[in-house]
Amino acid sequence: MRLRSLLKKVSPFKRAPTLERAEAAYAAGRKADAAAMFRTLAEGRMTQAQLRLGQLYERGEGVLQNFVEAVRWFRRAAEQGSVSAMARLGEIYLTGLTPPDTATPAALKRIDKEPNEASLLKRLYPQGLSVAQDLEQAAYWNGCAADAGDATAQARLGYQYASGLGRTRDLKEAERWFSAAAQQEHPAGQLGLGMLFAGSYGGTADHAAAQRWLEPCAAGGNSTAQLCLAMLLLFGEGVEHDEKRAASLLTKAAKAGQPAAMFHLGELYRRGVGVAASTSEAETWLRRAAARGYLKACLSLVHLFRSGPDADLHTAALLCRQAADLGDGEAQYLLGQFYLAGEGVPHDATEAARWLTKAAEQNVTAAYERLGALHAEGRGLPQDFEAAADWFHRAAAQGDANALYHLGTLQLGGLGVPRDPSGARRWYRKAALQGSAAASLQLGILYASGQSVRRSYATAARWYSVAARQGAPAGLYNLAFLHLRGLGVPKDTAQGLQLLEQAADAGNAEAAWALYRQYSEGEHVAADPEEAVGWLVRAAELGSGAAACLLAQQVDRADRPVPPAQRVAELLEKCATRGHADAQSMIGLWLYEGGYIAQDRAKAMHWLTRAAQNGNAFAQAWYGDILIRGEGVPIDREAAAAWYERAALQGHAGAITALTALRIGAGAAQDELAQVFQLWLRAAEQGHAEAQFQVGDFCLRGVGTPASLDEARRWLQAAALQGHRPAMTLLAGVLLQQSSDPADHAQAAELLRRAAAQGDADAQYNLGVCLRRGLGIERDDAEAERVYSAAAEQGHRSAQLALGGLKAERAQSEEEWREVARCYRLAADSGHPSAMIALAQLYESGRGLASDRASALTLYRQAFESGHADAGLEVRRLEAQLREAQLREAQLQS
């Protein structure tokens, strides 16, 4: 082969390279050949070739992709006057260039840390693979290109001046360069002017001018301009609002991939602005925005799932947690609120405080007020009024009216700050002037009550009126009573009732309850039972569990008028769903018993369990009973005791009684009995008569507490004064047995008389004993017989025996003895050993009964087996007599 032919095969091009031949090779797809020709020309200082070689290095076409090399060739071209190269350098330095996607993480790490300069990677990429951001260089090159008339560079330079990036912030210069680009109809210039006039970069806004520049840019399909123009059409000043067109523009921008547009479009669908309201469309667009990292969309989704008839609080809380974890302060604040309210998450004040603290660290001022409140209440955070005051001051400095109100409350009570009632009123006034209805209401209360200020009902009325105008129904409620009573305002019953009705219409359950009281008791208006029940129903509808429970009690009493039981059940369940423990207990009981509504034991257990968990003492005691009996649940005495104890701690006497029986039945140790005694004592101190009786009994017997006759008498006396019959009887016994003072005996007799008059069988019997013996009262056998008879008719066996004994003393006729025998038999059949002996003696003597020594022997044996010691002697005596009689009879027969 000749040398010429060989050179033709190995040479990349046949003739000397030219720009035209290089471009032709590039167009033909021979990019490596094109790059080689561009390099030869570039090294020969051809400006266009340097620009093109830089572009090939940037794109990795015909050469290994290398951003650093690209910048080197762009700079050489720019230095020779290439405007395109200047513009590209301005763009690159404005943002910087990260290593290309073709570079693996391992390679990048080796380039950064490779100590050997002679390594292959170091030789290929001596300056690395990335280009660092350099705002001053960006401004320099953008300025050069802009001066040469490059519209893109002019727009970028305008942006740098507007944002203060690489140049001192100068909105006039920004406007000049944006205008230069816009005059060339460059969309970036039009967009820049539109955003500048919209106020995006600060300065004075001119929304009409912004609209003029955004319109052509949006019409050209620029999605950012479409978004900005939509915002002007929705919220701009000096422009005609057009919600439908805004929705259309947002739809275009959203479909072009603008996350902010997706968010705002979702909001329009959520609120039904410019488009028909659609929960599904709102959720779709908001989820798309959230998936692209737009955190506000997460919060809107939270509000979407939190509201409406099909609210999904669990999903709302999950979305809120996602945004909070990503650091969104508003989401952190909202999540704290969720934990405080137990919405979609367990109620957890500590967790709430943690998230509110995170929000506060991001200067979410609403969190300041909440953290102050938590410190003041000692919820989720240690109670610390000084810390509370500090948070409230920080919130107040940001104009938070609630914080001003709380500062007033702290100063009024001297909590964490010196007590200063006049200073407190100043805080309240500041809060009220900023729209705090709570502060206005509190000022009204202070002036009405005269608390640390001269009482003035007229001033109170003015503040109540302000509170009402600020949206506090309680202001209407309090003002109503001033009109009803003529305090500070003319007495006007009609006006007072009207204000109460307005308060009820505004959702104030107390007002509806007050109207019920007015129409049921007739204090200021004629009583009207039907009207009263109507307002009681309204109070229950507004969430008053007490009203719903009162309606249930009226159903139980069959009062008239009263709503149908089914309607009352609906109201009970509504209040129960809102967490009212008494309503939960009542609806649970109705469902369990099935008297007024269909029986549903499973549902009953659900509500009664919730009521017990929410602190309802009746439900707690009831649940203890269920566990003892094993009705629908396994028998569990320990669990039952735990529920009884929870109810007992609230003073529920039935629960304390059951717990006492469980403890004593299980052979409770002294410390356990002491705990039971403390439960009774707590209830006794609250004035519960049964508890006072039990405490007296425990003190008398020394159970769970050292025996103390004085303490026993004190507590039994307290219960007796409330008409507690067993307490009267026991106290009477103590006075009779433990005292020789005639005055104490007289008091004992009086106590027994009072209890006997109320039908207490023990008291009747013991009063009979006093009458027979003349203890504290004149002896009177006839009256004794009367009270013995009353007790005997109630099955009191000692009274039956005593009555028999009294009748036996004067019995003469057979009929009278038969009456004696009847009394003894009643007592003997009830297991009274002495009555058995007395009846046996009648069998032996044949008085009132046919003589029957065998029956007498049977009764003596029963008395002996029942613990009567003397009966054993009678058994042996009668057995011996019967044996002798049998022996004599046998001898006679023989």
Tell me about this structure.
By secondary structure, this protein is mainly alpha-helical. The protein is built from 50 helices and no strands. Helix 17 runs antiparallel to helix 18 (295-306) and helix 33 (565-577) crosses helix 34 (581-593). 48% of the residues are buried. The model is unreliable at 1-13 and 118-122 (pLDDT under 50).
Q: Any low-confidence stretches, pLDDT <50, length ≥5? A: 1-13, 118-122
Count of DSSP E strands?
Answer: 0
Q: Which structural class fits the helix and strand makeup? A: mainly alpha
Give the mean pLDDT. 89
- What's the gyration radius in Å? 48 Å
Main sheet specs = none
Helical content (DSSP H or I, runs of 4+) = over 70%
By DSSP (H or I, 4+ residues per run), the number of helices equals 50
Strand content: under 5%
Mass-distribution shape: elongated
Distance between the terminal alpha carbons, to the nearest Å?
170 Å
Brief characterization of the structure:
The chain is an all-alpha fold. The protein is built from 50 helices and no strands. Residues 1-13 and 118-122 have low confidence and may be disordered.
Structure characteristics:
single chain, 894 residues, 50 helices
Furnish the topology, listing elements before pairings.
Elements: H1 3-10, H2 19-27, H3 31-43, H4 47-59, H5 67-79, H6 83-95, H7 105-113, H8 120-124, H9 135-147, H10 151-163, H11 171-182, H12 187-198, H13 207-219, H14 223-235, H15 243-255, H16 259-271, H17 279-291, H18 295-306, H19 313-325, H20 329-341, H21 349-361, H22 365-377, H23 385-397, H24 401-413, H25 421-433, H26 437-449, H27 457-469, H28 473-485, H29 493-505, H30 509-521, H31 529-541, H32 545-557, H33 565-577, H34 581-593, H35 601-613, H36 617-629, H37 637-648, H38 653-665, H39 670-685, H40 689-701, H41 709-721, H42 725-738, H43 742-757, H44 761-773, H45 781-793, H46 797-810, H47 814-829, H48 833-845, H49 853-865, H50 870-893
